[in-house]
Fold:
Amino acid sequence: MKLVSYLADGTSSYGIWQDDGVVDLKQRIGGAGESIRSILDRLDEAKAHEGAAPDYSHDAVKLLVPVPDPGKILCVGLNYKTHIAETGRDAPTHPILFPRYPSSLVASGEDLVRPKVSTDFDYEGELAFVIGRGGRHIAAADALAHVAGFACLNDGSIRDWQRHTSQFLPGKTFWHSGSFGPWLVTPDETGDLASLTLTTRLNGEVMQQATLDDLLFGVPELIAYISTILPLESGDVVATGTTGGVGLFRKPPVWMTPGDKIEIEIERIGTLVNGITDEQ
Structure:
């Protein structure tokens, strides 16, 4: 299934994105809450409505980020071997974690905002996953059973601010600097993650491309590590890191600028598309 959050007729809802339209789940699942978070731990109930006659055409809805109200957004730094190589750093022995905040992310089809304090606006194409069934001290062998779905994420980075200190946060959570979407694809449709190709295109030119087996710490290892630190809850988002080819390490550097189009595509998951605009 492709699960989406959206606005329709001025009201927020969530449902299944199908070739023929959108099936609304908020009105179909008993006890469903205002947010998609309320059903992510019981997707068998959602799947029962797959293939139903759509409630909305695609044109009648405006996509939101797949989980508009996550309890946590955690990002992983230096987690692709090709990206580690281009930075010249040693591979970390444990996952490098930092937070993003919901106000930093926009949906597919919306503009990313280059802040007025910087022009060093970089792209980072990433695989994100969303927790369905929460837990603590989750074993890596059991981890994938806790995943509700996968999506594309652009960890848009303000590089000069990122380098202000040894902590990544200042450059990683500027308002509307990143994007997430266009939908969540449930694990039964992705197949073997390691074989999937991630591609980032800037104005149609391929800037990043790698299969997901380039990950240093895979999804099971990340879930096991993070859930040892704190409980993971339904709706939590984890961005797994970016591959080589970021703008910072190109000669000369390549930055996203107003009028550009940036696309993050992951096989069998989808394509996240955003324009770039300046902060007003």
